Amino acid sequence: MKQHSTMTDLRHGSDSLVRRASYECVRRLVLLEDAADCIRQEIAKANDREICGFLMGYQAATDVHVHCVRPAENIYQDKSSFAISQQNYMAILRTAGQNESAVGIYHVHYGSPYPSCPDVRNMTLHSFLWLIVGVAAGPEHLVQRWKCFKLAEGKIRKVRVVMATLRRRGVLVSVTKG
Fold first, then answer.
1. 55 domain residue, yes or no
2. Distance, CA of 5 to CA of 84 (rounded, Å)
3. Beta partners for residue 54, in sequence order
4. Structural domain of residue 32, as residue ranges?
């Protein structure tokens, strides 16, 4: 099935809330289990609609750390495409804390966790990392694979995804490959 995605066009100066970062050197997306659980819960409630949102965190050397996600409303309300309204986009970015920013976009594909043609086109418009969650068909909506991509030197490149668990005091306890 063909996948479609659209992001709001930010060329009109409205992206001033996005801390512009170059993710060309990024090798790993470190996703906290709490953030992954939030995405899993959204998938369970989605009724076969494509979910989407923002990855919130920070970059440290060649790692991007995602400690929470900000779900966004998919204005298309269907299974094979997503779009985020300008108002929703700006509201999410305004809620970012001092030590966090929108570092990526996530969405689901019912099937393959690889970028669709519209995803690739949108990667050229937005300097975010793109986390795509491949979901199995059926009532269980079992998450099969988590894949992350970036645009670097004009080409789509994979970024390794690792899941991390934190203790209460913020000390890393375990990291597992996603």
1. yes
2. 9
3. 70, 105
4. 20-177
Question: Looking at the domain assignment, is residue 79 inside a domain?
Answer: yes
What single letter denotes the amino acid at residue 84? Answer: I
Kindly report the average pLDDT of the chain as a whole number: 80
Residue 11 lies in a domain: no
Q: How many domains does the chain have?
A: 1
List the CATH number of the domain containing 90: 3.40.140.10
Position 13 in a domain = no
Q: Is the pLDDT of residue 38 over 90?
A: yes
pTM given for the model: 0.81
Query: What string of H, E and C letters represents the secondary structure of the chain?
Result: CCCEEECCCCCCCHHHHCCCCCCCCCCEEEEEHHHHHHHHHHHHHCCCCCCEEEEEEEEECCEEEEEEEEEECCCCCCCCEEECCHHHHHHHHHCCCCCCEEEEEEEEEECCCCCCHHHHHHHCCCCCEEEEEEECCCCCCCEEEEEEEEEECCEEEEEEEEEEEECCCCCEEEEEEC
